[in-house]
Amino acid sequence: MKCYIMVVKIEARREDSPRVQEILSRYGCYIRARLGLHETRDVCSDEGVLILQLDGDMAEMEKLEEALNAMKHVKAKLVVLD
Q1: Total domain count, the chain
Q2: Do the Cβ atoms of 32 and 24 come closer than 8 Å?
Q3: Closest CA to 38 of 53, 20, 64
Q4: Please, what is the average pLDDT of the chain?
Q5: Which helix (H) or strand (E) holds 15?
Q6: Cβ of 34: how many Cβ atoms within 10 Å?
Q7: What does the pLDDT read at residue 38?
Q8: How high is the pLDDT of residue 60?
Q9: Domain at 36, CATH number
Q10: DSSP sequence for 50-64
């Protein structure tokens, strides 16, 4: 069984979250699970990390990665574990 995980770093959450959400919604059928992490101690951090468990067509997962990486303050990496 292959496991598809995408890690997404967002460096400007306040600015980029609406567009990131729009992209994730477009590819929502391929997202099995989503975990969002950011610093919350004294102030809501402007940086965050998303961890996505993906499933389905590899070409669509790669398109999701490309769409996220096209954003200035977002970095995405697809990891495939055998």
Answers
A1: 1
A2: no
A3: 20
A4: 94
A5: helix 13-26
A6: 14
A7: 80
A8: 98
A9: 3.30.70.1150
A10: EEEEE-S-HHHHHHH
